[in-house]
Design goal:
With 225 residues, the chain is of the alpha+beta class. It is built from 7 helices and 8 strands; from the N terminus they run H-E-E-E-E-H-E-H-H-E-H-E-E-H-H. It has an 8-stranded mixed sheet with strand order 4-3-2-1-5-8-7-6, with helices on both faces. Strand 7 and strand 8 form a beta hairpin.
């Protein structure tokens, strides 16, 4: 595949970004060993940049990030792409607004996934970021696009940018890779907090109109414009 200089420049930028964002996974204690990955879609191209398979986080460099097409075939990079590449690729093919995908096995969120239980929206942070509960996707095996199919099936009808894949772990999506990492960090935070709260007593759900108000404010008003 021949890429223009502009596309190559974008790919180089995304390789640096994706490589650096993996440090956020370790810094926020969302991953252990090599179990987790970040990817980014190349804008206006049927391409993505993703972590190489089985490479430890301290050994990651921009040059080792793998460029693949949106069917998971390596185009250029330092080796074989992540074992989760098919899932990422399926998401990009079917959710055009998504430009970043993250996968983790963060402890508390994965504990909810092991129970096959959605995290209920009982925190304003959840309403802000996820627009409601964090849903559960179906059990699926690694090796093809089955996980991606489950992610798309659930998130296509949901405001959440995070999903708990049953008996597996967490996948998050975003407008870019950094947004998807933020979603993964906040998913683990609310999973931990809601778990602890439930040990203390009955959870108090937020009424849907208030969830809608909080979500609209956070998505459209909060922050610098």
């Amino acid at each position: 595949m021949t890429l223009t200089s502009d596309v190559l420049g974008t790919v180089d930028r995304l390789r640096r970004q994706v490589s650096n964002l993996h440090a956020e996974l370790t810094r926020n204690e969302l991953v252990v060993w090599t179990a987790g990955n970040v990817s980014a879609r190349v804008p206006d191209q049927d391409l993505m940049v993703i972590k190489p398979s089985g490479v430890s986080y301290e050994e990651l460099t921009p040059e080792r990030m793998v460029l693949t097409d949106l069917y998971g075939k390596a185009v250029d990079g330092g080796g074989s792409p992540s074992s989760d590449t098919d899932a990422h690729a399926y998401v990009y093919r079917h959710l055009p607004a998504v430009h970043g995908v993250v996968h983790t096995h963060s402890t508390y969120a994965t504990a909810w996934a092991a129970r096959g239980e959605a995290i209920p929206c009982v925190l304003t942070m959840m309403a802000d970021e996820f627009g409601g509960e964090i849903p559960v996707g179906p059990f699926a095996l690694i090796g093809d696009d089955s996980i991606g199919r489950g992610i798309v099936e659930v998130l296509s009808g949901h405001r959440s940018t995070a999903i708990l894949m049953q008996n597996h772990g967490v996948f998050t999506v975003g407008k870019d890779a950094r947004s998807a990492v933020k979603s993964a960090v906040l998913c683990e935070e609310v999973a931990r907090t809601v778990h602890i709260s439930r040990q203390l007593g009955e959870l108090l759900p937020i009424p849907q109109p208030d969830i809608d108000h909080l979500y609209a404010r956070y998505q459209n008003v909060y922050g610098q414009k």
